[in-house]
Design goal:
- This protein has a domain at 59-148: Nucleotidyltransferase, domain 5.
- Helix 3 runs parallel beside helix 4 (128-140).
- Helices cover 36% and strands 16% of the residues.
- By secondary structure, the protein is α/β, with parallel strands linked by helices.
- The chain contains four helices and five strands, in the order H-E-E-H-E-H-E-H-E.
- The longest helix is centred in the N-terminal third of the chain and has 24 residues, at 15-38.
- The mean pLDDT is 81.
- A five-stranded mixed β-sheet has the order 3-2-1-4-5, covered by helices on one side.
- The N and C termini lie far apart (89 Å).
Length: 151
């Protein structure tokens, strides 16, 4: 019996392997760019801070009823007059009375200038136009941090 020796000298074609790796690198670079562009910095407006770090800033909670009435609740505020602490602004023809709200906010901002946050709590049947006009009125009154509480 004769033993045949296998020939250990062979050629390996690396071109398809290099093509595959270059394609994978291209996909890696593209997805890295998409991930960088698609990210956004989001912070939670109220309650995201640790209890020790959170300083108490005054907050206005506005409940908007289906009839258009506004119920104002000023929290963490020491200087707001008693008549506005749990004020109710009646609707005007089924819509929120924005002129009266603007007057109330102007008076409150005179005594509490650091009031910057307003949170709106609408009921499910409120028209979105009322919420937007309420937010515009608050923005025009000087409240810069606005939010809508989920239903």
């Amino acid at each position: 019996m004769s033993q045949k020796r296998k020939h250990l000298d062979f050629e390996l074609n690396l071109i398809p392997f290099i093509d595959l790796l270059s394609t994978c690198i291209c996909f890696l670079l593209l997805t890295a760019v998409w991930i960088n562009i698609g990210s956004m910095n989001v912070k939670q407006a109220v309650g995201g801070q640790a209890q020790t770090k959170a300083d108490k800033k005054p907050v206005l909670w506005m409940s908007l009823t289906a009839a258009g009435d506004l119920i104002l609740d000023f929290q963490d505020s020491n200087h707001v007059p008693k008549k506005y602490q749990k004020a109710k602004i009646s609707a005007l023809e089924g819509r929120p009375n924005l002129t009266e709200l603007t007057g109330v906010l102007a008076e409150v901002r005179k005594v509490q200038p650091d009031l910057m946050t307003a949170l709106i709590q609408p009921v499910k049947s409120v028209i979105y136009d009322d919420i937007i006009s309420l937010m515009d009125s608050c923005k025009n009154s000087g409240l810069s941090d606005l939010g809508v509480v989920p239903l």
